[in-house]
Amino acid sequence: MERTYTRPLLDKLGVRPGARVAILDVEDPSFRGLLASRTSDVTDGQPKPDTDLIFVAADSIDELLPLRELRGSIVPNGAIWVVSRKGKAARIRDTDVMAAARSAGLVDNKVVSFSDTHTTIRLVIPRADRQA
Q1: Cα(51)–Cα(94) distance, rounded to whole angstroms?
Q2: Where are the beta strands (DSSP E) in the chain?
Q3: What is the pLDDT of residues 62-105, one digit of tens each?
Q4: Which pLDDT score, from 0 to 100, does residue 118 have?
Q5: Within 1-132, where are the H helices?
Q6: 96-99 contacts: CB < 8 A, separation 24 or more?
Q7: Does some domain include residue 1?
Q8: Tell me, what DSSP letter sits at residue 92?
Q9: At residue 5, does pLDDT exceed 80?
Q10: CA nearest neighbour of 118 among 35, 70, 55, 66
Q11: pLDDT at residue 130, rounded to an integer
Q12: Are residues 34 and 57 in contact, defined by beta-carbon separation less than 8 angstroms?
């Protein structure tokens, strides 16, 4: 018997009410609508300092290069979600994202189905590197 999951997407992604969120090139109107129902602190493009969550679209290795810079914009317990195509349409693999994360001083710790066509991997600052 297949399990049916009904947990809302924003809960899976850790979007808390009032969270500071930045979106870089993620073109998904339904996601933006969901975000608007939970927080009004949403930036398109370059994140503000102390951003809780960054959602960045990436379908090539080159689009993963800004991860190190983005790392400096998130709060110590924040996250960068890399949104990419899934299945046969995928242009990068999860191992590509994980390698780019490591080189940017981040670790991956969760994968979520973002939509029917996209997946997302959460990247965080390792606990040992977070400042108290």
Answers
A1: 24
A2: 21-24, 42-44, 51-57, 74-85, 107-113, 118-124
A3: 999 999 999 999 999 999 999 999 999 999 999 999 999 999 99
A4: 96
A5: 9-12, 29-36, 67-71, 94-103
A6: 96/61, 96/64, 97/58, 97/64, 97/121, 97/123
A7: no
A8: S
A9: no
A10: 55
A11: 86
A12: no
Q: For residue 60, what are the domain limits? A: 9-126
The answer to whether position 69 is within a domain reads yes
Domain membership of residue 53 (yes or no) is yes
How many domains does the structure of the chain reveal? 1
Domain CATH number, residue 39: 3.40.50.150
Distance of alpha carbon 117 from alpha carbon 91, whole angstroms: 12
| Pair 39, 21: CB distance under 8 Å | yes
Indicate whether 109 pLDDT > 70.
yes
Question: Is residue 23, in this structure, part of any structural domain at all?
Answer: yes
pLDDT at 55: 98
30-70 tens-digit pLDDT: 999 999 999 999 999 999 999 999 999 999 999 999 999 99
